[in-house]
Amino acid sequence: MAKLVQPPTRFTHQEWTTSNLTKFANAETERQAAERLVEESKRLANERERRTDKTQKDVNKKFQQRLDDIHYWKKELEDKLSDITVEIDNLQAFKTRVEKALESTNEPLHIAKQCLMNREKRKQIDLVHDDVQKELIKEVETIEGVQTLLKRTLEQAIEQIRLNRKAKFQMEKDLKDKFSAVAIDEYCENLRNNSASIGFKEGVTKIEANSVSPEDWQNFSNANILMTERERQSSVELRSLVDGILQQTTNDMRKQCSDVNLAFNKRIAETKDAKSKLEDHLNKIIAQIKEMEENIARLKIAIADKEQPMKLAQTRLDTRKNRPSVELCRDPVQYKLIEEVHEINASIEQLQDRLRDAQDSLKGLIRKQLTLEEDIEVKSNTLFIDEVECMGMRKSINIQHF
Q1: Residue 385 and residue 379: Cα distance in Å, rounded?
Q2: Which of 14, 199, 301, 398 has its CA 20 to 30 A from that of 272?
Q3: Residue 85: which domain range?
Q4: Rounded-to-integer distance, Cα 402 and Cα 140, Å
């Protein structure tokens, strides 16, 4: 059993010395390596610290540059937002002008149509398609054309206001995002290594899928600015167009209103002149009727005055028939009495013929009197319609420039 236990290995002094030297060398090597590692670590730590500081400064500089870029575009957006806001107010004012102008056409149109309806109440020969009628129809067509144009212009203004507000909304949304971005980046820029709110965050180096490049970011705001400026310019051009339309439609309506009034005044003057002449003729007819009635009375008296001479002549002739015998002579007296009877008969016939003529003339004069009186009544009715009803209404027409 004792033979199985091996005695410990025995080394020589040289081996012991070599072993010690080897361990010394290995320890020194390890120590030197560790020393170098310590120095390298210090150098690396210092270098990383300097690099980290430099990178942080670069990041802060990038933050400042980014904030400058955001502030620049924010200022551009604010300027354009201010411009489009002012333009919306301006176009809204023009829209109100168009609405008022459109509303103001209702009364002139109603009056023009009412005048046409009133003039349908003219009677007989005065129911004529005269210049007044033509100008009134033209006025209705003019006002209805103005209304159509103003309605179309109003629709354009409403649509442009909608586009302006859409552009304004895009600008406001972009600006809101810019404000948020400024707040976030300013907060990040002000963070320091000793800030209490900093901490480790996982997955922060992953690029967000919905992120955009700086070019896309810039192009987005630039596109909003260009769109807003385009809509603002369109709005300015529309306002210029609206101003011209309002002026032109006002001028057209005023001119046509003036033409209608001139036609009315001319027609009223013509009707008054015709009525005056009819009244003059009526007065003459009435005077002539009176004279004819007096003439008829004289003729009747003249006919009646022939009765006694006729009776006398016939009585003489009849009495002379009683002369006796040879005294029943056809002497000059007999012939003269016979001639007298014939003469009186002829006179009576002539007077009766003249009386019939006078009576026929009187009937004609009376018919003419009735015709003239009826025509004068027609003219009076026309004057009442044109001068009192129509021109009375037209005095209230006030075509304003809005």
Answers
A1: 10
A2: 398
A3: 42-190+215-269
A4: 20
